[in-house]
C-alpha cells in the first residue's frame, strides 16, 4: 500500500497582499526543497483575483510530513497566518495518529483512498 500523505491547504488573503505571500513562499519552498528529502511535491497556486492560494503538499509518509511541520511551525506558520486565513484543508492518504494530532489545529477533512494508482 502507498504510504504517501498529501494535502491541499487553502489560504484566503485577508490581511496581506500577494507580494507578501510570494516572498514568504520563496523562503518556504527553498527551505523545504533543501532540507526535506521526504517532501515529494510542494506547489503553490494563486487564483486570478490573487486572493486565494492553494498549497499542495505531498510526502512519502507520515514521518516526512511531521518533519515538515516542525520547521514550518517554528519559522513560518505565524507569518503565513498574518497574511490570510485558513479557509480549507483536505488531507489525502492514511496519516498516522501522530500526524493527525499534529494537524488537529488546522481542522480539515480526511479523505481515505479507495482506488487508483500513483507512479
UniProtKB/TrEMBL annotation:
Alphabetized InterPro entries for the sequence: ABM_dom, Dimeric_a/b-barrel
Keywords recorded for this protein, A-Z: Monooxygenase, Oxidoreductase
GO MF annotations, alphabetized: monooxygenase activity
Domain ABM: 8-68
SUPFAM superfamilies listed in its UniProt record: Dimeric alpha+beta barrel
A Pfam family that the UniProt record links to this protein: ABM
Name of the protein this chain belongs to: Antibiotic biosynthesis monooxygenase
Source organism: Desulfosporosinus fructosivorans
